[in-house]
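Feature request, filed as a ticket because there's no other form

It would be nice if the structure record came with a short human-readable summary line next to the tokens. Right now we just get the raw output. Example of a typical job, pasted below so the devs can see what we mean:
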Amino acid sequence: MTAGYGFSLFSDGVQREGFFPSSETSRTYFAGLGFNAFTSGKKAINVQSSYRMMNENDGFDHLQHLLGIGYSFGVGDTDKDGVSDKKDKCPNVPGLKEFDGCPDSDGDGIIDKDDKCPEVAGTIELQGCIDTDGDGIADPDDTCPDEPGSIEMNGCPDSDGDGLSDDIDQCIEEVGPAENKGCPWPDDDQDGVSNKDDLCPDEKGTTANNGCPELSSEIVQTLNDFGSRIYFPANSAQIIGRKTQEVLQEIKDVLIENPKGNIIIEGYASSDGDEDYNIDLSMRRAEAVMEYLIGLGISPVRLELEGYGESDPVGDNSEPKGRAINRRVQFKPKRD
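Raw output as currently delivered:
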């Protein structure tokens, strides 16, 4: 809005003396309305209309309209917080002078743009946040903000120490693997082999036998009685002879009747060759028996091999008969 008092001059083209000759100059009262439309921080378009009243005979009451362009040469204050844009570090948000024009909504002395928790008064060490449980982890970063925990567990505790935080551990008082959600694998028969790995989950067995009972000593003795009738030629691992094959068939029958027992096939040799050769030969003899039993339908997972060369002879290696019985295989149950 504008109002005031002034002079208006309407010249008729006749030259007269004086700066304000009374016949052409009128005292004027005026009032008007206008506005500035800012196109930027300092530039504006100005529009104004005013009505002017003359109090001399030669004057004319009239309307005056203005259209112009304005420019502010001063320093602006866009957010109107009393800090000029030049000094305001947050020019588009009203703030405080002590914070260079930036706001501190929660009053904790940390300006909002640097405050991770601008609506909660916190500490500088936690970037403006609080630590409810006092574990050194700010609440926004703490998965368990009401329970003290560790950085490794994202602020949560691990009560049983199994490497799973309590918030995801379904058995927080028992140590268990992550793949079972922190709970121990069940072991119904209490033999130390969990149900998932126990081939005989309802019978107490051994770890070496995959949770199944071992073969009894009587059955092992029977196998070795049969095994004593398996003969190998000197320097050979070849299974020959119908009687030997019949013995292996009987061994297969015993293993089929006792499907939960696993065995180790031990190979031996006489002292005819050197020690390294005899160990290799004994392994090949044990392997030959294993392959024959597999061919008869025994699962390979039930069989293991060991070669002992010329050690632990059962006969006199100085005699042909003793060397013959030393070229043998023996059986023993697979134990832990």
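Something like this underneath would help us a lot:
The chain has four helices and seven strands.
The two ends are 103 Å apart (CA to CA).
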